[in-house]
Amino acid sequence: MKIRASTTVCVCFCLIGATPLAADWRDEIGFTRLKLLAGAELPDFPNQGFTQVEAPDSGNFLPDTTSSLFTGKTFSNLSGASGISNHAQHVATNFYGNTTSLVTGAFNVGLYDANGWIGAGFLKTGNNSLPAAESHAVQNHSWAGTLNANFTAATATEINRRLDFTINRDGFVCVVGSDNSASAVLPAILCQSYHTISVGRDDNGHGAGFTTLDFINSTDAGRIKPDIVAPSANPEYATSWTTPMVASAAGLLYSKLAAAPYSLTGADKPRIAPSRMTPERS
Q1: 3-class secondary structure for the chain?
Q2: Are strands 2-4 and 10-12 parallel, antiparallel or unpaired?
Q3: Containing structural domain, residue 121
Q4: Is residue 20 a part of any domain in this protein?
Q5: For the segment 73-83, what is each residue's pLDDT rounded down to a tens digit?
Q6: Judging by DSSP bridges, how do beta strands 138-141 and 173-177 pair with one another?
Q7: pTM for the complete prediction?
């Protein structure tokens, strides 16, 4: 499936429409046992909220905001009219579902179509304006972009740099997925950015290898991606579903560190581990 942004960026990515099923991945990562042991010590939710960015699935990008899975959530549609997307629904189930993710409670969720997020709605790619401010604690991106005739390496680099700038400026955690190609070729957009957490599958069914964009020296070998993998046992067989697992965990960790007795004011700020040749940012 392809989408086209106002900046003529053409993004190709994998969408797998599926009905949300039991979140057995929580058992596999040890969360169920942690919940039994920690009990009331586990935090409920990140009060800053989440952002979910979705590529259009048959023109739609919204989860079912009326679902009982999301009771207490306040949704902000930031990209206009849309029907329900099965893909967005499954991502949301793992990301912030009350009984299917790692976080519960009432908080705001911002919802973007990927075209709007890339363009005027957030990153403002292709013009001289600064990206919009992000007030939420965690962004999730269960889509990946590849290079083609209209989507050049220069455009991909601009998108990645704009996202890196915004993460550094606003201090939020941004979790992005690789694709499901099981190849040594990484998606160009988002996955090759510096300040994001890139996610794959624990069965190695994802694009992986060295980054190929945005070096000071073109002979630099790049950085190895993805950064982390999550359970991909049926039905969680795609990076679209493993990415929100990691994003949900990021929200849980933020909530814990932001609450007493830690009360860290910078609990949502990413801890960046740059490569040995990190490009300077203007």
Answers
A1: CEEECCCCCEEECCCCCCCCCCCCHHHHCCHHHHHHHHHHHCCCCCCCCEEEEECCECCECECCCCCHHHCCCEEEECCCCCCECHHHHHHHHHHHCCCCCCCCCCCEEEEEEHHHHHCCCCCCCCCCCCCCCCCCCEEEECCCECCCCCCCHHHHHHHHHHHHHHHHHHCCEEEEECCCCCCCCCCCECCCCCCCEEEEECCCCCCCEECCCCCCCCCCCCCEECCEEECCCCCCCCHHHHHHHHHHHHHHHHHHHHCCCCCCCCCCCCCCCCCCCCCCCC
A2: antiparallel
A3: 46-258
A4: no
A5: 999 999 999 99
A6: parallel
A7: 0.87
CATH of the domain at 234: 3.40.50.200
Rounded Cα gap, residues 46 and 26, in angstroms: 19
Rounded distance between C-alpha atoms, residue 141 and residue 196, angstroms: 10
So what's the pLDDT on residue 7?
35
Task: Give Cα 33 to chain centroid, integer Å.
Answer: 26
Longest dimension (CA), the chain: 53
- The candidate with the shortest Cα–Cα distance to 15, out of 248, 250, 249, 243, is 243
Tell me the backbone φ, ψ of residue 234, rounded to 5 degrees: -50, 130
Q: Is residue 16 part of a domain?
A: no
* pLDDT value at residue 106: 93
Q: What is the dihedral of CA 88, 75, 228, 169, to 10 degrees?
A: 130
Number of domains in the chain: 1
Q: 146: pLDDT confidence band, cut at 50, 70 and 90?
A: confident
Yes or no: say if 239 and 199 are a contact pair by the CB < 8 Å rule.
yes
In whole angstroms, give the CA distance from residue 59 to residue 9: 17
Whether 40 is in a domain gets the answer no
User: Which residue matches tokens 């009326």?
Assistant: 66
What whole-number distance in Å separates Cα of residue 34 and Cα of residue 22? 18
